[in-house]
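ok so heres the complex, two chains, lmk if somethin looks off
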Amino acid sequence: MSKTKRKRKTSKKKVRADGRKVNEIRPTTIETGIIPNADGSAYIEMGNNKIIAGVYGPREMHPKRLSKPHMGVLRVRYHMAPFSVSPRRSPAPSRRDREIGMVMVDALSPALFLERYPRSVIDVYVEIIQADGGTRCAAVNAAAVALVDAGIPMKDLVAACAAGKMDGEIVLDLGDTEDKEGEADVPLAYMPKLDQVTLLQMDGILTAKETMKAIEMAIEGSKQVYEIQREALKKKYGMTEEESGEEETSEEAPEDAPEEKEEEQ
Amino acid sequence: MSAKFETRDIVIPGDLIYEGKIRTGDNTYREEENLYATRVGLVNYGKDRVTVIALEAGFIPLVGDLVIGEVRDIELGQWKVDIGADKNAILTVNDAINKPFRSFLDMTRILDVGDTIVAKIVDLDRSRTAILSILGRELGRVHEGFIINITPSKIPRLIGKKGSMINMILRETRCQVTIGQNGRVLIHGRNRSDEELVVKVINKVNAEAHTSGLTSRIQEYLKKIKEEKK
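and the predicted structre for the whole thing:
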């Protein structure tokens, strides 16, 4: 047993079940602005995870008694579609859904200026279309992009990625089977520019050393996700980057606005 | 003391845009003498401050803004009006008919739930709730026309330099347009097809607000549609 273990550790290029390297995240694509009805939205595919996030607000909170007089409230609804997993899952919100919703609030709110929106609420709805392990990380990634798309001021983006232990080895971004058969799973959310961790959970058993390695690896993974998030946000305004060099002077003139409105025929 | 981007570069929340002492403009925040962006937008390095022109932003009410809103609720002596901000705005009877509220007054005869109004923000209360007034020229209930929503931060672009964009659209289509600072635009033309043309054009402005040479491009676009109709 120990012999095989040592062998695996020395070979850095060991491939996993889906052909990934130990420190490689799953192929990830993010799209923004996919729900016109919402103030902001994003769609993420992270491996076989397919997740839609929609953001509404800041808006008036109902029921009113839940609002706070001195700051805004962030609400996250995490929900898995009945067909997102096999066998079918009950569509009723479960204990797990509520927990992940709460965990996502804690992961995202450090990046927001909630004190700017007293008595209001920002609603984030996350729908898991297809689940393939690590949905909470993928959901945080989509929700962060959707929040930016909604024009909500943020200190930084939030990128999330998990690391875990599989066959005695620390690996990055576990898939569904790795998650279930592996020894441990450490989901982590991270604000790359501020260098702050906003979510850290652990499921399973790791030694102190392994935990530190998993955290470092997950942070590296989050940074990779962050680059994809950046690209997704810039892609929406694709023309800007090429044209930015030859721009004429800005036509923005907000102070002119009130007078101009009166000019009607 | 150094800029980290070029003016008009696209930035994303959390991007370090300036190192050193400088005043914070719109959509930026400071932490330990570093300036970061808070919204997606185009960075602008001014003389004494750095701003980010937001590409996506909600409506932040300011005193003096002309807004288009919908009456959502009637309370004792006041209406609650949805203006697309984080909280419903308040319109008191006093600011609606210039007379104090009396208990025998039937408020639904003045404004009812579901009515659309053009109003002016006259004040903000301590939690930044907008206080409206419909006393004034061209304010009050809207009877007919189209209302479309665009991103509030793109309103200056729709107006253009000294109204160049909107005046061009008005000239070409002969419609009346009232632009609310909250991103709602009321269009009233002589017939439906004129109005639909304006809707099309304004949606195009909204989608391409961050590109250069927009006014002339919109003018060509308008001419093209008009010729197709003939």
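quick notes: Chain A has one domain: 7-236. thats all i got rn
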